[in-house]
Specification:
Layout: H1 3-32, H2 42-65, H3 78-101, H4 104-125
Helix pairs in contact: 1-2, 1-3, 2-3, 3-4
């Protein structure tokens, strides 16, 4: 498995762990009422599970499984993939921070970084998406 795929999938699993932990905290707070501000975690919880876990898991799997080139570099320009990884994670963390601080400028910056990360990833694998036998 390519190193970039490993990092995407490891990051996805880390976000899954944090997202489930925050979800469990909010769920436990319904019955026990020990942390009144627990619902402030809801937007970050959703961000971590949707963008952090699902998108990164999809990107890591796609980078690994899409057809490879016959000659080196087998996966194309991996620098674009690494840039996508860093932009996506920066965007997820910035968006989560904006949810906790109610910062609209942080939210805009985070979403922009996420879109940039998705665009860079698409650009990095574009040449590998081709019809069967092509």
């Amino acid at each position: 498995m390519p190193r970039l795929s490993v990092w995407f999938i490891r990051a996805a699993l880390a976000y899954l762990l944090v997202g489930f932990t925050w979800g469990a905290l909010m769920l436990a707070n319904i019955g026990l009422r020990f942390f009144p501000q627990a619902w402030w975690l809801l937007p970050s919880h959703v961000e971590f599970l949707l963008a952090g876990w699902l998108v990164q898991l999809a990107f890591g799997t796609a980078f690994w499984i899409l057809p490879r080139f016959m000659r080196r570099p087998f996966h194309g320009n991996e620098k674009l993939g690494w840039a996508a990884f860093f932009c996506l994670n920066l965007g997820i963390l910035t968006t989560a921070a904006s949810d906790l601080t109610n910062g609209t400028a942080l939210l805009a910056a985070g979403r922009t970084a996420e879109v940039l990360g998705a665009a860079l990833f698409a650009w990095s694998v574009w040449q590998r998406v081709k019809p069967y036998g092509g």
